[in-house]
Amino acid sequence: MFTTRRDQAASGTVLQIGDVARQVGLSLRTVRFYEEAGLLSPVGRTQGGFRLYDEDALDRLLLIKKMKPLGFTLEEMRSLLSVRDELRLPDLTPERRQELQERLRTWAVLAEEKLADLQARAGIAADFVAGLHDDAARLPDDPAPTPGPGAHHAGPAGDATGKTLTCDDESRDGAGPGAVPPADRGHAELDASRTKAGPAGH
Question: Distance between CA atoms of 40 and 56, rounded to whole angstroms?
Answer without folding.
Answer: 9
